[in-house]
């Protein structure tokens, strides 16, 4: 089915936390509108940039087979859409099914320009959910709110070289909730009937933060992640990385009342500031034709502590592909391209120690000791038009510097990476394994990672340095989760596999690196 959708991007005044400011929105909505499609559909989206800033839109988790031109990241697959201009994107869906999302891919515009992308089963082919059809499905979007203009926050971050200012609130479906000033009356409320099952489509649209989420007195059943179904399992809380989606079933099996939904940050880096507030929403039961009256202080759900790494990996480690006859998987076994990428937080020196990062330096980040430099011409255009000097093709297949990556105190001379605009070339239809190795340079932390153009199987993960002889023996090649976004655990590693069957140039983003399929 072919649909055409208009996407106006414009400034809109919004009031949160007792003050009003203009934010960038789509259709004047925060979060933006939810798109509903069926598996295999094609959509034409006409993006009208009515704002004062350049913009691009990315369709997070959509593989876009042989269509990288509409993927969205600026200066990678396209130049940004200038103020007053229009750009048409063709969104081609293939085997995605479940919940994805869309967002701006220019600077930090995605803080407010984002929304849910719901992909229903293709009922024309007789398919349906691999679980009983829920009574209703509801997108639940987590995001952040700054009192300052987000452009000012981003520009200050770039100018000073220090950590960006932390957000003033987290939000659930655009609202901070009861625990913030001037927010109680507008708290998001989900009204439900007792004895029903609801499909909650959880999306973490926070700019940087991993979040814990739970609902008081209710267990959740995980059934999907990143547009793919999982083996169901029950949990009291979920851990969700920025960019990740998780589908859960909620059974409304408690006495009719009000129950808090709540989310707060998981932050594992020591000595780094973070937003330690908690966003809430209300789950309210109907009684007959009336909703229940909210108590003055409904109980908060249990959420793991801010730095509880064990709780984080205990959840993510339970994810498994459904891997049945109707939803088969195809995990690459014979690998033709083995890659190891270190993922690090770094610094660059500033003249006279004039920046506000550690010891007067400028914060940076790298993969395999290369910190990405954004080109002035998009890489995809440079490739197709044989424009030289835009990028190089020498991104290393393994770390150029080998050291004890997770040592407690790595040598400080390793803190400064090289700069470059490099891509990694892999052959069409090759089978690829990437081991993402976190390091303890500057600050060991979890590293959220997202690959454009592909989903990948997470075949293994662990703490410490990856052992190429021992660790692959423990890989899960039977039912690994199929994802497009993961978090490499603090001072640990994760191994992913995929088949390079989607030609183009695609961004692997935590720090910029590009995978080009020839």
TrEMBL record:
Keywords: Apoplast, Copper, Glycoprotein, Lignin degradation, Metal-binding, Oxidoreductase, Repeat, Secreted. InterPro entries: Cu-oxidase-like_N, Cu-oxidase_2nd, Cu-oxidase_C, Cu-oxidase_fam, Cupredoxin, CuRO_1_LCC, CuRO_2_LCC, Laccase. One of its GO terms (molecular function) is copper ion binding. NCBIfam families: laccase (TIGR03389). PANTHER family: LACCASE, MULTI-COPPER OXIDASE. This is Laccase. It holds the Pfam family Cu-oxidase_3.
